[in-house]
């Protein structure tokens, strides 16, 4: 008999902990934006052990309706079971009671895939993802905001190791808890060669072994209830096909290649009222023709510092965290990428060496590459040395040609069998677990699990494989060009960091060639920077804007050179760099945090008087500012005439860092709008956004005033609202 509409059908039970996780996220703010359709769904906690999710069934008018509901209820259970299985982070040696905490990558709403704003498809770009997105960010969003998504097609992009798959599984589970039928499909597992129907892609192949009646009933319900469906296609970059130049097909029962099905999903020809989510590396979305591109793009950024620490402690103990925080703050910044976090832990675990021995990216990747080993299915016949040499060859070739994606032919030309390349793994031995991370990903097209591997192997080719004559030509004509920015840092790190090792004659020659040319570059760029400072142009004129862009490019170039010096840890080169340090220097706006260590390494060797050092609007966070301030406070009294730290994201804990600057800055210290609260929010959140000032509170002002009185300086400190603080003695 048909059931009454008010009767509730129990769909499935899931762990109380999973529901609490979603509910906690929804309660973190009173300003959660979730659509009415989602708000109308209810989660009913029955007891401490289990949660029952209830769904209001519309009246069933026939036995076929009843069959559909029984089938869709069963399908929802299958989906939840799949998500529970896939969502677990499986680590070797982990007991069933051990759990990895849920972490939250920072999410940005991007204006990214508009005309003239995208990079060339499959092209190598030395800029990190944060730099790639920095001018395209509209706002920061929260996880729960995505649950109330009003758009019907969104994409989630992120660099390698950022956790796209884990994030998409979390989204799928959250939507399921809110009573949406959510099907999560990994596109790398859906590279079917034979044609198939839309139903086969989403049901028959995803959940095999059920009756024809079950699949028919489920698909019928889905066709009639598309607004209750969420489809997540994970990993467009791992699909073996291109979606260019495909003819639309509106027949959802046609038997066609899988690429046609994916394309028509993107065009919203199938299930137009469903929510479609695609995850990918940024470049792969460019396969989509403009009409098939997502309405909204979200980018996953780094983890928060709090989440970084939580994930870190899941793999290692707190003692290692404290050691890295004390000895190598740069490593903490790199830890905010989950993949890099695991590699950093591995390189420092059970090591008798000082933690600082892995304090640069060059040293870190050199350590990780030593852990390059094979899996149980490893089929290479050559030695690991031969394999490493082959990896270097095709990494250099790909970077030179501007590629991040390698074809099977390119691998064969590089001496690597593409049928076995997927078996190359980096084996990471952590304190509690052992983790295997693939060095290259893909089946027919391949890319390194992190672009930095390609860059490190490219640098290794330049240092260890390239003949001296070719090396000199390469250094003089190419190495310090923008295309090779990250590679140049690794080359400097590998060559300048050789003092305690047995070095061959060729390497010594290369080291001297590189040292000479790097110092020449520092001298040239420093002088050009000072010449730019001396030039003046009419404000807001075309010449002014052109001059501004040129200045920013020069500042960035100078900081890149300092990063090269920092990678090598060679004090003699840092001393030379300090001799050419500009007397007036404005750091880039914003400044990439990975440039801070190199800048600080050079600053330690600066002995000249500086007229002005501006850190204004560099987007410095608490850690980066602390690192810079720790170096400056060791300089001579009054060594910097004027300093500007306006418009950064400092925390209350940075007040002590500011006080440390007072002895070194002689005349003026500008510090407007440079603090946020411990909660990461702007201080005056009730003001209009344009007028939100990160004001100092009275206790902080009193601390600065007391410090000024004690050192009896002529320095004036300009704080918010134009207040000037001076020594009262």
UniProtKB/TrEMBL annotation:
Residues 159-315 form the NACHT domain. The keyword Protein biosynthesis does not apply. It is found in: Cytoplasm. This is NACHT domain-containing protein. SUPFAM superfamilies: P-loop containing nucleoside triphosphate hydrolases (SSF52540), RNI-like (SSF52047). It comes from the Eukaryota. PANTHER family: NACHT, LRR AND PYD DOMAINS-CONTAINING PROTEIN 12 (PTHR45690), NACHT, LRR AND PYD DOMAINS-CONTAINING PROTEIN 3 (PTHR45690:SF19). InterPro entries: LRR_dom_sf, NACHT_NTPase, NLRP_innate_immun_reg, P-loop_NTPase. Residues 690-721 form a coiled coil.
């Amino acid at each position: 008999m048909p059931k009454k509409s008010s009767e509730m059908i129990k769909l499935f039970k899931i762990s109380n902990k999973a529901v609490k996780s979603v509910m906690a996220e929804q309660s973190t703010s009173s300003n959660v934006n979730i659509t009415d359709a989602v708000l109308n769904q209810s989660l009913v906690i029955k007891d401490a052990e289990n949660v029952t999710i209830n769904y209001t069934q519309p009246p069933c008018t026939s036995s076929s309706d009843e069959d559909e509901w029984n089938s869709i209820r069963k399908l929802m259970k299958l989906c939840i079971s799949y998500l529970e299985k896939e969502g677990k982070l499986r680590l070797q040696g982990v007991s069933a009671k051990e759990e990895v905490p849920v972490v939250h990558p920072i999410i940005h709403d991007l204006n990214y895939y508009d005309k003239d704003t995208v990079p060339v498809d499959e092209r190598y770009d030395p800029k990190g993802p944060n730099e790639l997105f920095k001018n395209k960010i509209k706002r920061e969003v929260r996880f729960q905001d995505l649950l109330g998504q009003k758009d019907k097609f969104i994409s989630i992009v992120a660099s390698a190791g950022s956790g796209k798959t884990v994030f998409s599984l979390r989204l799928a589970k959250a939507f399921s808890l809110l009573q949406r039928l959510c099907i999560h499909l990994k596109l790398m597992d859906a590279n079917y060669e034979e044609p198939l129907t839309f139903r086969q892609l989403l049901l028959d192949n995803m959940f095999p072994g059920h009756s024809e009646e079950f699949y028919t009933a489920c698909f019928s319900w889905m066709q009639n209830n598309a607004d209750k469906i969420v489809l997540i296609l994970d990993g467009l970059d791992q699909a073996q096909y291109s979606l260019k130049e495909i003819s639309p097909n509106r027949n959802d029962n046609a038997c066609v290649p899988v690429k046609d099905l994916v394309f028509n999903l993107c065009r919203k020809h199938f299930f137009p009222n469903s929510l479609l989510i695609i995850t990918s590396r940024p470049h792969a979305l460019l396969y989509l023709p403009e009409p098939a591109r997502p309405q909204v793009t979200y980018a996953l950024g780094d983890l928060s510092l709090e989440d970084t620490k939580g994930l870190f402690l899941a793999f290692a103990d707190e003692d290692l965290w404290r050691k890295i925080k004390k000895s190598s703050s740069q490593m903490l910044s790199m830890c905010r990428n989950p993949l890099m976090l695991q590699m950093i832990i591995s390189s420092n675990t059970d090591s008798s060496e000082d933690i600082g021995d892995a304090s640069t990216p060059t040293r870190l990747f050199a350590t990780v590459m030593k852990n390059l080993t094979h899996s149980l299915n490893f089929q290479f016949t050559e030695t690991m040395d031969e394999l490493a040499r082959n990896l270097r060859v095709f990494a250099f070739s790909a970077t030179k040609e501007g590629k991040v994606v390698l074809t099977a032919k390119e691998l064969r030309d590089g001496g690597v069998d593409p049928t076995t390349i997927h078996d190359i793994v980096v084996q990471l031995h952590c304190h509690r677990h052992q983790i295997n991370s693939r060095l290259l990903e893909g089946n027919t097209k391949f890319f390194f699990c992190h672009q930095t591997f390609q860059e490190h192997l490219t640098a290794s080719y330049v240092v260890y494989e390239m003949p001296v004559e070719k090396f000199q030509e390469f250094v003089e004509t190419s190495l310090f060009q923008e295309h090779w920015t990250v590679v140049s840092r690794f080359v400097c790190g590998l060559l300048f960091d050789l003092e305690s090792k047995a070095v061959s004659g060729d390497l010594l020659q290369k080291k001297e060639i590189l040292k000479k040319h790097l110092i020449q570059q520092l001298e040239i760029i420093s002088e050009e920077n000072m010449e730019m400072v001396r030039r003046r142009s009419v404000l807001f004129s075309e010449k002014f804007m052109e001059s501004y862009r040129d200045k920013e490019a020069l500042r960035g170039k100078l900081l890149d050179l300092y990063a090269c010096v920092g990678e090598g840890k060679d004090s003699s080169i840092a001393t030379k760099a300090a001799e050419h340090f500009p007397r007036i220097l404005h750091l880039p706006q914003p400044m990439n945090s990975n440039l801070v260590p190199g800048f600080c390494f050079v600053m330690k060797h600066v002995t000249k008087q500086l007229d002005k050092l501006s850190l204004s609007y560099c987007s410095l966070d608490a850690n980066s500012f602390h690192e810079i301030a720790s170096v400056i406070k060791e300089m001579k009294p009054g060594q910097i005439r004027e300093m500007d730290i306006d418009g950064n994201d400092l925390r209350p804990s940075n007040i002590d860092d500011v006080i440390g600057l007072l002895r070194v800055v002689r005349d003026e210290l500008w510090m407007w709008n440079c603090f946020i609260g411990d909660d990461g929010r702007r201080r005056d959140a009730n003001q209009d956004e344009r007028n939100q000032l990160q004001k100092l509170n009275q206790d902080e002002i009193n601390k600065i005033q007391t410090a000024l009185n004690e050192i009896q300086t002529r320095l004036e400190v300009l704080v918010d609202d134009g207040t000037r603080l001076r020594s009262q003695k």
